[in-house]
Write a structure and sequence with these properties.
The complex is a heterodimer.
Chain A: H1 3-12, H2 30-35, H3 37-45, H4 49-52, H5 62-76, H6 86-103, H7 106-121, H8 131-161, H9 164-178
Helix pairs in contact in A: 5-6
Chain B: E1 29-33, E2 37-43, E3 48-50, E4 60-61, E5 63-65, E6 72-73, E7 90-92, H1 105-109, E8 116-118, E9 127-132, E10 135-139, H2 141-160, E11 166-171, H3 177-189, E12 193-199, H4 200-217, E13 226-233, E14 238-246, E15 249-258, H5 262-273, H6 277-280, H7 286-306, E16 311-317, E17 323-329, H8 330-336, H9 338-354, E18 364-368, H10 375-385, H11 398-410, E19 423-425, E20 432-436, E21 440-445, E22 453-461, E23 469-475, E24 485-492, E25 504-511, E26 517-524, E27 536-540, H12 547-558, E28 564-566
Parallel strand pairs in B: 1-11, 11-12, 13-18, 15-19
Antiparallel strand pairs in B: 1-2, 2-3, 2-4, 5-6, 5-7, 8-9, 9-10, 13-14, 14-15, 16-17, 20-21, 20-23, 22-25, 22-28, 23-24, 25-26, 26-27
Helix pairs in contact in B: 2-3, 4-11, 5-7, 9-10
Classes of the chains: A mainly alpha, B alpha+beta.
């Protein structure tokens, strides 16, 4: 993650920290995180892009997303906010725009929705949300799982019609298990 | 607490920051300084109103005459005749000269103006001077603009019966950040504080957003999102913008612009009428200037007439024994300026592509600016955009009205009827990045990025044990770094010795809503959580006059010893 650099920036000058990056645990070297910054950064900053836009439903239509963006922009754009809250509103608007940019693009939105649902299926929201990494890990585990399942299927069939080799392997297997 | 009415702005530092809100916010006025004409407008509490000078003019010529002790501009001065502007004593077309160096082709084109524009072609500011009693009196574009702005300011103060300090100025899309600092300098010289510098078509876009919002209020229009293309061409510049508008919010999707305009049409036409005119007038005696002025007025007049008629008779005695007597038709005019019109077309297409918008998606097509009266321009825009042109705007007043609206919104004024429930979400007209990978330009903030914005990129060293790196910041879209506008440079020092490619140099660019650019750079080593040297924070641009040399000098002195490369993206 780019956290350490950004958080030190934000210590020096508060407006530079767009989002609470400093709270994120840091496990990955800077390099990898940076190469994915376009996606992962946005997720660092907010738990849910739909919530950033004040949308209740992940099923919101494109029109609703656009409308929400405009309504929120009218509240948080630094031009319409009190000058004393400029830093805060700038940070808020940058976050808002990042959310809008992802959700208004059909491809990016689908990707995001996929990551969002995989996160939800795992239950609690993890504090270390490198989803690209998580996503590929999930996919890999699913594939392993699937391979095992198929292989098991074949095992069950071995008794009847499998090759000699696989029958022998199955036999060996069961022998090792028994012993 | 009384605030001083007139303050001198500091050279480069943070005068651009808004003050903490006063009890009664002062409404910023909108100013449109055109290459040829200028105007002032203000939100009067219920609508935008254009201010008039003592001669009841809303649009005033942009020029300053150095005839007498005190120079006078087109706001207060009354020209007895157009020719008076062309005696060598008046300086005009300042917008084409400000912030440019003497190697710039636009400066070279300005050498045919009837005052002195001297170039040495070494990358410094051009020398400009006005002829006063047979003496070339030197001045600068900033000074001329400031004299003019003071006149506008006095005019507004007299009418509004209050001091004026805050302004929103409309500017061409293609202006570099260095040019913007020159505009700010001119305003500071005139005692004005720039609240916003607004690209002209985005000012028009804001006016359009207000009109659409008004129609929704009046139940005449649908509240749905509208996509508009705005084409603005004046005497000096051509600008295009694509905006998406809904609910009073104008979101700028893309911008494109170039320093082409009516002045180029005029010069091409003069060349057509008198092929070797530049040579004839190069000595710039009083007689030559006089002839040049006569030809200029006659040509300008002919071009204006060709907007409404097919042919025009030109008959002008240049006073030096030569006389031009010729009939010119519209087709000739269009052929002579074919390249300019092609460029206009390419700007529109670029803008549509950048916005990822098809011509069929456009709701409205708005053409404004002095050149919007030229039939060829109108037809060109119509044919590319496959639409009839929007009719709800005065082409000469739209930009200043938009600037005045922005002035009211940015000053925190609200309107009980919701007429000021408006917002412009701006985009960067040019990419900003640094020199890396040899002499390549690596954009960190790409063109058409929504503002405010914050972007960063990681670079690394090219030499083993490289302790210093040079960050050279450019603005533009050209692939080669030196073909872009230099904004500034600084060095990061004290990088711990490490093999090349190991230290991570993070460069971050931060643009706030008032378009202030800050460049931050820090060094990290893999595994460390903290930057190894203090982070550099630089407000850009930092370059001053003579900046044309800097990059070259840096390269000569340091070669590749302080270079950077981008870190390969690992997916």
């Amino acid at each position: 993650m780019n956290c350490s650099f950004s958080s030190s920036l934000s210590n020096a000058k508060p407006f530079l920290s767009h989002g609470a990056k400093s709270h994120k645990p840091q496990r990955k070297p800077v390099f990898i995180a940076f190469s994915r910054s376009r996606v992962s950064e946005q997720e660092n900053q907010s738990p849910n892009l739909y919530k950033v836009l004040s949308l209740n439903s992940n099923q919101a239509s494109v029109e609703e997303i656009k409308k929400a963006y405009r309504t929120m922009a009218r509240q948080y754009h630094p031009d319409v906010c009190d000058p004393s809250k400029k830093e805060e509103s700038t940070r808020m608007f940058v976050r808002l725009h990042a959310a809008y940019k992802t959700l208004s693009d059909p491809v990016l939105r689908e990707e995001y929705d996929c990551r969002l649902s995989s996160r939800n299926s795992q239950g609690a929201i993890r504090p270390r949300p490198d989803f690209a990494y998580q996503c590929s890990r999930n996919r890999w585990q699913e594939q392993i799982h699937e391979l095992k399942r198929r292989s098991n299927c074949r095992m069950n069939m071995t008794q009847k019609e499998a090759s000699w080799g696989s029958r022998m392997r199955a036999k060996n297997d069961s022998q090792t298990k028994d012993s | 607490m009384a605030e001083p009415a007139y303050t001198v702005a500091s050279d480069s530092e943070t005068t651009g920051e808004e003050k903490s809100s006063p009890a009664f916010p002062e409404i910023a006025i909108g100013i449109d300084i055109g290459t040829s004409q200028c105007s002032v407008a203000i939100w009067n509490g219920s609508q935008v109103e254009l201010l008039k000078n003592t001669r009841n003019q809303k649009l005033m010529r942009s020029y300053v005459t150095f005839k007498d002790e005190v120079p006078s501009g087109g706001v207060s001065n009354q020209l007895s005749h157009e020719h008076e502007m062309l005696t060598g004593a008046a300086i005009f077309n300042m917008k084409r000269l400000i912030g440019r160096v003497d190697t710039d082709p636009v400066v070279h084109a300005s050498k045919s103006l009837p005052f002195l524009v001297q170039t040495l072609d070494i990358g410094v500011r051009p020398f400009i001077a006005a002829l006063v009693n047979n003496v070339w009196r030197s001045t600068t574009p900033e000074e001329v603009l400031a004299i003019f702005l003071v006149e506008l300011r006095v005019m507004a103060e007299v009418q509004l019966k209050r001091p004026i300090r805050n302004v929103v100025l409309s500017i061409p899309v293609s202006f570099s950040r260095f040019q913007l600092t020159r505009i700010e300098r001119a305003c500071a010289m005139a005692g004005l504080h720039v609240l916003r510098l607004m690209p002209e078509p985005t000012a028009v876009a804001l006016l359009y957003a207000q009109q659409q919002q008004q129609m929704v209020h009046d139940n005449m229009g649908s509240g749905s999102e509208k996509i508009a293309l705005i084409f603005n061409m004046g005497a000096g510049y051509c600008d295009v913008a694509v905006t998406v508008t809904g609910g009073g919010v104008s979101q700028i999707k893309s911008l494109a612009g170039s320093a082409i305009g009516g002045e180029d049409l005029l010069q091409n036409m003069m060349r057509h009428l008198l092929p070797n005119w530049e040579k004839l007038f190069s000595s710039r005696g009083i007689n030559e200037i006089n002839s040049m002025g006569l030809l200029r007025v006659a040509t300008q007049d002919a071009i204006h007439k060709l907007s409404s008629q097919d042919t025009v008779q030109i008959d002008v005695d240049l006073g030096n024994g030569s006389r031009i007597c010729k009939v010119v038709n519209r087709q000739e005019f269009e052929e002579v300026n074919n390249k300019i019109f092609e460029k206009c077309g390419s700007l529109i297409i670029q803008c549509l592509n950048d916005a990822k918008v098809e011509a069929d998606d456009l709701t409205d097509v708005i053409v404004v600016g002095g050149c919007s009266y030229i039939p060829k321009i109108r037809n060109l825009v119509k044919s590319i955009c496959k639409r009839e042109l929007y009719k709800g705007m005065n082409p000469l007043e739209a930009a200043v009205c938009g600037a005045a609206l922005e002035g009211a919104v940015a000053s925190g004024i609200s309107d009980p009827f919701g007429s000021l429930d408006l917002l412009t979400i701006q985009a960067t007209p040019l990419g900003i990045g640094i020199q890396a990978n040899g002499n390549r330009f690596v954009p960190i903030v790409p063109r058409n990025t929504t503002m405010p914005a914050r972007k960063e990129l990681i670079f690394t060293t090219v030499n083993d044990n490289q302790t210093d790196v040079l960050i050279i910041v450019y603005e533009g879209d050209a692939e080669k770094a030196e073909e872009n506008h230099l904004l500034g440079y600084f060095k990061i020092m004290g990088i711990p010795p490490a093999p090349k490619g190991v230290p991570e140099i993070k460069v971050c660019m931060d643009i706030d809503a008032s378009n202030v650019l800050r460049v931050l750079a820090g060094v990290m080593l893999p595994g460390s959580q903290q930057p190894v040297v203090p982070i550099m924070e630089v407000r850009m641009p930092t370059v001053d006059d003579g900046h044309g040399w800097c990059a070259e000098a840096l390269h000569r002195t340091y070669g590749a010893t302080l270079d950077l490369v981008t870190v390969q993206q690992k997916i």
